[in-house]
Amino acid sequence: LDRETEKSGMENPILRRAAGKVLLGKGQFAAAAAQLAKAVEAAPNDLEAGQALVEAYDRMGKPELALTQALALAEARAQDPVGWTALGDRYAAAAAAADAERAWTSMVEHLPNESEGHAALAQVRREQRDLGSAVHHWRQVIRVRTKEPTGYLECARDLIAMGKGAEARELVTTLERTKWPEHFGDLSGQIAE
User: What does 139-184 look like in DSSP terms, one character per residue?
Assistant: First the structure.
């Protein structure tokens, strides 16, 4: 593949990704990383190649390279909260709390008027047991997506966990009184939870 690329002067990131994934499956992590790095260099927005490269670095025991690639993935897909969440989790596992916090809050910074970033950050805050912050972000989800029940349900759950039953009851009342589109199904079971 290297000779063919050198001869033609044209890189083939799709073929490199495929070769890298095959090598990864065979446990040849360094060789996989070499192919995947070239694929990512030629096509930085190739999510599949980028994720495979992170995996190759992880399997090689090179967490700093995996972190660098995870950051590049998150930045390349800045509008996708999944990449920022994964990056934040990776930083947290590496005991880099400030970097983890920066990654998690980037979800909202890149999508300030969209519900996805707020919902993802609310989930992170719930896992951290910072329910006050989770409620704040669920309220932002409600503000942006008033015609969807998810923000109401999740905010009520966190309010109940905080011992704020009266505030949760207001949200539940809104859930019960609102005629939701059919594709949300019957919410009574979820409300009862």
Answer: HHHHHH-TT-SHHHHHHHHHHHHTT-HHHHHHHHHHHHHS---GGG
Please tell me whether the overall predicted TM-score, pTM, comes out greater than 0.85 for this model. no
Q: What pLDDT shows up at residue 188? A: 76
Tokens 């599949």, located at residue: 48
Instruction: Write the CB contacts of 153 (distance below 8 Å, at least 6 apart in sequence).
Output: 171, 175, 187, 190, 191
What whole-number distance in Å separates Cα of residue 21 and Cα of residue 48?
10
Helix, strand, coil fractions of the chain, as percent rounded to 5:
75, 0, 25
CA distance 24 to 123: 32
